[in-house]
Amino acid sequence: MRNRSVATVAIATIAALGLAACGSSNEPDTTPGAQTSSLETKAGGAGGEVGVFTWWAAGSEKKGLDELEKLFKEKYPNDTFVNLAVAGGAGSNAKAKLASDLQNNQPPDSFQGHAGAELLDYIDAEQIEPVNDVIDALGGASVFPQSLLDRLTVDGNIYSVPSNIHRSNVVWANAEVLKKAGITQAPADMKAWIADMEKVKASGVSTPLSVAGTWTQTHLFESVLLADLGVEKYNGLFDGSTKWDAPEVKTAVNDFKTVLSYANTASDGDDWPVATDMVIDGKAAYNVMGDWAVAQFNDKGKKEQTDYTYFPTPGTDGVFLFLADSFTLPKGAKNPGGSKDWLSLVGSAEGQQAFNIAKGSIPARTDVAPTEFPPYQQSAMESFKNDQIASSIQHGAAVPLAWLTDINAAISKFYTNKDEATLVTDLATAATKYVG
């Protein structure tokens, strides 16, 4: 599978996720020994510093990482956790530094990477080692969906340990703002949502929709694409069966331009909590953000269905727009034993429960009981099990880093000039580099 084309990766990803949605029950696994395996390590861990590189530097993301750090210190007292988090840009700042560190043979002991096309960048560059032994010790396919493991596997080797699953296509809304505007139900499609934004604006809220920097705009755009293209044609964007200058893409670009006309003016450096807080504070009605946002509402003391509500991006009901975080064993890590201690915690049932409750995501493991989670995460588990699956563009599941860089550049240009034809051309031109 090494040096596969992006099209081949996309097809494999989509097929695997379809199986994951059908086959992952998120009910406890009662297979004998499924939760009792462990790596043959020294009691208390390998010892030494364990540098862990992420972009979880603020908000609910940091709270999730803090929960893992606390457990790591408890389970592996001989190890010293070193937080190497780099803030900003949904990981874009972190990935730039990571690329430099890896190129200069200065890898951390483990780093965060998205499952899917993004992970293949590191595998093809031979920058990460297989972690089959860690996955096997954690219970393998008896606790992780085989289809998810397939997305982390190249040439029979598994290259990272999944920590969670996120949903990208979620609208977070201020319940009081919607009530004031006379909006009582979620809109069915883009046209209806735009009409509701007009109602919100007429009620006195000048910015019905909140956005932040470029990556949040690409995050929004992928949901608009999914809404206007549907699952099959959206997935086809990554294997060449749907052209990036197709009529449906042009419709999505037009809708994207329209919804942005209801949004605030953002700076490229603004990160997602800024936009989510606008909804929390009633300065905006809506924000499209991954389900890490739920922890932001909860941290501010807001109550679900009373202070805030949520629903799939209009036009995407019945579809789970997927991404997953995972952790790697870099080639040349200074403390590979400590790295495996970290990976063992990340992939454990206890680690995944503590981390995902704090972060707003759902466990990658299927033996963590949904009843332990708040209502939103329970609904996400149900959706992942039953709904159709599509892969996130912004968050590494659908496209490799180089392609995402081109897409973000096109979106950034569009945010300034609002030239629909140029955006379509830029997207289509970028795709020709990666899809045959």
Automatic annotation (TrEMBL):
State the superkingdom. Answer: Bacteria
Signal peptide positions (record): 1-20
The name under which this protein is listed is: Probable sugar-binding periplasmic protein
Q: What is its biological role? A: Part of a binding-protein-dependent transport system for a sugar.
What does the UniProt keyword field contain? Signal, Transport
Pfam families (UniProt xref): SBP_bac_1 (PF01547)
By its UniProt entry, which InterPro entries does this protein fall under? Bact_solute-bd_prot1, SBP
What is the first-listed, main subcellular location in coarse terms? other
Q: List where Polar residues composition bias occurs.
A: 24-40
Compartment(s): Cell envelope
> Where is the segment annotated Disordered?
24-43
UniProt-listed Gene3D superfamilies: Periplasmic binding protein-like II
Please report which protein family the annotation says this sequence is part of: Belongs to the bacterial solute-binding protein 1 family.
